[in-house]
Design brief:
The protein is an alpha+beta fold. It has 18 helices and 27 strands. The strands form 9 sheets. The chain has a 7-stranded mixed β-barrel, surrounded by 5 helices. Strands 2-1-4-3 form a 4-stranded mixed sheet, covered by helices on one side. Mean pLDDT is about 80; it is low at about 1-5, about 10-15, about 25-40, about 55-75, about 200-215 and about 680-695.
Length: about 725
């Protein structure tokens, strides 16, 4: 007997006639799978597949089997009204005519296997790192659910707390007796996770913290004092009430007097002179503003190197992929700068540095030592104050400079740190005399030539990479640099001017990864290296304006260095500041043997004899003198000069007098007296606190090698030269 699956025969009425089915709306073609199952009638005009005769197998089936939907023997009974019900489901909304209702018959429930599956409960959990979805069941206990949350977020079981409400109410405890259904947690609910301060991520997440904002990047970074101070300041630009535009009371605010943000470009452009670059902390305020408060802000350093650890291919040059390949760089004008002003404390600091060029005509180089302070002319600005200039070993000519290895570099930095100073930049001269009678110099650096040459940009980028700026918003713990570049060159009035610069972070990355080269015949142009078998170099582009006024992108081979430079104003204060005392006969500067100025005990004795100030602190407060006391080879005082440095830093005369009575200073005075220069007041402070005139008369120092000889000898025991 043939099984009927697709359409049941309609019941006959009392009169013996089958009711005429109501009009049908055209239905779309049913899915082929359901048509093959015989659950839906084929569209009108199509040939119905005729079932085989009873007892005959369908083609392709083993003999003895009865054909059915799906090619298997049918063992299920016909379901009344199933085909009509599913057909109506795909045909569209049912007709409500009485004739159609009679033809449809009584309602039929679909089998459970044909019903759509019930969605698996998914609970959303929001943490400071974002939202994650946890798959659960209704009967799952709270303890099992919290274990899933801990595994998903990489936390220990006691390293977090989950709450039903955002205000930390309705905490979910790790109970095995309470299910999520009992806690009224349904599919799609949002729970809130807060990390515990007593526990941290598990060992799997130690290398990459997932909780908390990603902006801090390196939470253990200790920023500079000026950065910590500016981060706590309001920074807003407050304006007074405009009597013409404001129409409110004294306590009200409107668009004409409401405080402005420190990164407001219109305000910066209307300053005198206009400010092209906002301060770095104003840039941070711009990133961290808004509704999210900079939750996902991260200042990432640019990298031009291939990422290591990619195992999907051979190493360069045999293979590279998009995962390890560095991105191309398009040079843009940097919108911010880390230092907004360079200020020399007084003119004496700069004049003593320029004396070398005035006496020799050769260019000179020096390191700027000072401190970073607040620059109040720009919102949240930073100023580099220069207190002293240290001149390392070098070879200078009229057209070039060559730096030599400095064995005293670390000691100088250590002494400067004890004096409250740090290395804030470097300075060099580029001066060519134009008229010696008028004292004018050539104006060579301008918009028609260059402001910094490509070699100078590369040197500045190297210095900035060696002195990075600590930043808590960077994953690397540092971002950019506060190291500045100062140039002593001719100005438009043919007088000596000091110009300040920095290079952009893009230039720092190109220099750090050795991707930028200078041009030999064009100092205003740089050149981006090409990739080789030893090094992969990403493409570097810059935007320019063609002759038709269109913006075009060009390959940086070569590139104008103006895209890499950030200019900084350089000033001198109206009221000079003196960290170190100024003398008419100052102590000689180090590494000036070319001029005949040497640092030895004879020059120290001469300096002490000419400075007869009653205040010992004023006499000893000379940066170059303190360096000589620490770095001299005869009697270095590196281990015993801390008290004197503290006295100079705090301007404490009592501490200076205490150190003056020490044995170290008495020995220094004894050495100075042997060179033939009598120091004023030397008899007051000897090596043992008593008179030393007899000892000074007995011992004598050689004028040629400064060796201290025993009394009664006429020739030096060291160099064998006569005493006179």
């Amino acid at each position: 007997m043939r099984q009927q699956i697709c359409r049941p025969r309609p019941a006959r009425e009392a009169g013996g006639r089958a009711p005429r089915p109501g009009p049908r709306s055209p239905s779309p073609r049913a899915p082929s799978t359901l048509l093959g199952l015989g659950l839906f009638p084929p569209p009108r005009g199509a040939l119905r597949p005729q079932p085989p005769a009873p007892g005959r197998a369908r083609p392709g089936l083993p003999a003895g089997s009865v054909g059915c939907a799906g090619g298997r023997p049918s063992s299920r009974l016909p379901i009344p009204g199933l085909g009509e019900t599913l057909g109506a489901f795909f045909r569209g909304p049912p007709s409500h005519s009485s004739q159609a209702l009679r033809a449809r018959g009584p309602p039929v429930r679909l089998p459970w296997a044909l019903l759509p599956p019930h969605p698996v409960p998914i609970i959303r959990v929001q943490s400071p790192d974002g939202v994650k979805r946890i798959t659960t069941t209704k009967r799952e206990s709270a303890a099992a659910f919290l274990k899933k949350v801990a595994k998903e977020f990489g936390f220990q079981n006691n390293g977090f707390s989950v709450y039903i409400n955002r205000n930390k109410t309705g905490e979910i405890t790790a109970s095995s007796n309470k299910s999520l259904n009992l806690l009224k947690i349904k599919h799609g609910d949002l729970l809130f996770l807060f990390p515990s301060s007593l526990a941290g991520p598990s060992s799997e997440m130690e290398t990459s913290p997932s909780l908390g904002p990603k902006a801090p990047g390196a939470p253990g970074v200790e920023e500079d004092e000026i950065d910590q101070y500016l981060s706590k300041q309001d920074g807003k630009i407050y304006r007074s009430r405009d009597p013409q535009l404001c129409r409110h009371g004294p306590l009200g605010k409107c668009v004409h007097c409401v405080p402005l943000e420190p990164f407001d470009e219109d305000y910066l452009n209307h300053l005198e002179p206009p400010v092209k670059h906002m301060s770095f902390h104003a840039y941070i305020r711009k990133l961290t503003g808004g509704a999210d408060k900079g939750k996902f802000v991260a200042l990432e350093n640019i990298s031009c190197k291939i990422k290591s650890g990619c195992e999907g291919h051979l190493p360069w040059p045999n293979g590279i992929c998009t995962k390890c390949q560095p991105s191309a760089i398009t040079l843009n004008r940097q919108k911010y700068r880390h230092v907004d002003n360079i200020m020399f404390e007084n003119h004496t600091v700069a004049d003593r540095f320029l004396d070398f060029w005035r006496k020799t005509g050769s260019q000179h180089f020096g390191y700027l030592y000072g401190r970073y302070t607040e620059h109040k002319d720009i919102p949240l600005g930073i100023r580099a104050e220069v207190a002293a200039i240290y001149e390392p070993p070098q070879i200078g000519t009229q057209n070039s400079l060559e730096l030599l290895e400095d064995p005293k570099a670390e000691v100088v930095d250590e002494i400067a740190a004890k004096l409250g100073l740090r290395k804030v930049g470097w300075i060099f001269t580029d001066l060519v005399s134009e008229d010696t009678r008028k004292g004018t110099v050539r104006y060579s650096r301008n918009k028609d030539t260059y402001f910094l040459s490509s070699e100078e940009c590369i040197t500045a980028g190297d210095f900035q990479n060696k002195h990075p700026n600590a930043c808590r918003l960077s994953p690397d713990g540092h971002f950019g640099s506060k190291f500045v570049t100062a140039v002593a060159t001719g100005g438009p009035d043919n007088q000596v001017h000091f110009e300040g610069y920095q290079v952009s972070n893009q230039c720092m990355a190109l220099v750090r990864d050795e991707c930028l080269l200078p041009c030999k015949d064009a100092p205003e142009l740089g050149y981006a290296k090409e990739s080789s078998s030893e090094q992969y170099v990403p493409d570097v582009f810059y935007k320019d304006i063609d002759k038709f006024g269109n913006e075009i992108t060009q390959l940086a081979r070569p590139l104008p260095v103006e895209y890499l430079i950030i200019d900084i104003t350089t000033t001198f204060p109206k009221d000079p500041v003196y960290t170190f005392s100024i003398s008419q006969n100052p102590f000689p500067i180090e590494n000036r043997d070319v001029l005949g100025e040497t640092q030895d005990f004879h020059s120290l004795a001469t300096y002490l004899s000419q400075n007869t100030s009653s205040v010992f602190l004023d006499t000893i407060s000379d940066f170059h003198l303190l360096l000589f006391l620490v770095t001299n080879e005869v009697m270095p005082l590196q281990d015993s000069i801390s008290l004197l440095l503290e006295a100079v830093r705090t301007r404490n005369e009592e501490l200076a007098q205490t150190w003056k009575k020490s044995e170290q200073w008495a020995t220094i005075e004894q050495l100075c007296s042997t060179v033939g220069v009598q120091l004023p007041g030397l008899h007051e402070y000897g090596a043992v606190g008593g008179p030393t005139q007899a000892a000074a008369a007995a011992m004598w120092a050689c004028q040629h090698c400064t060796f201290v000889n025993q009394p009664g000898t006429g020739h030096c025991e060291m160099c064998s030269l006569p005493r006179t």
